[in-house]
Amino acid sequence: QVQLVESGGGLVQPGGSLRLSCVASGFIFGSSTMNWFRQAPGKLRELVAVINNDGSVTNYVASVKGRFTISRDNAKNTLYLQMNSLKFEDTAVYYCKGPYPYWGPGTQVTVSS
Predict the structure, then answer these.
(1) Sheet harboring 10-12: ordered strands across?
(2) Is the Cα torsion angle 61, 62, 63, 66 positive or negative in sign?
(3) Which of 16, 45, 81, 90 could disulfide-link 20, Cβ–Cβ 3.0 to 4.6 Å?
(4) pLDDT, tens digit (0-9, with 9 covering 90-100), for 56-71
């Protein structure tokens, strides 16, 4: 059974940083492309960042390029999202997702002064 558990969200001021984690189980994590999505209130869920199975290739939505870094530790079945220079518009629930149609509960990120 695929399980994804996100953590690391919280309340942060503009310009601050957070590091999100996602522990995955139930599939071969080290062979899977992984993604971070986010969903802000009243908006559609959007893809934020993608990383290939060995971490050698990453891609980001334009709005987070240069501020967010996706990474992974295949030995720990864990996906990360380092978020720096956070902005109000980064406020959302953040989700990780693998190659299967399963979602975790997400982790709330709130950027507020």
Answers:
(1) 10-12, 107-111, 92-97, 34-39, 46-51, 58-60
(2) positive
(3) 81
(4) 999 999 999 999 999 9
Rounded Cα gap, residues 13 and 32, in angstroms: 33
CB 64 within 8 A of CB 50: no
CA distances (Å), 83 to each of 32, 44, 90, in order?
22, 20, 9
| 32-56 per-position pLDDT tens digit | 999 999 999 999 999 999 999 999 9
Which residues are bridge partners to 11 per DSSP? 110
Burial of 13 (0-12, 13-18, 19+ CB in 10 A): exposed
Query: How long, in residues, is the chain?
Result: 113
Parallel/antiparallel/unpaired status of strands 10-12 and 3-7: unpaired
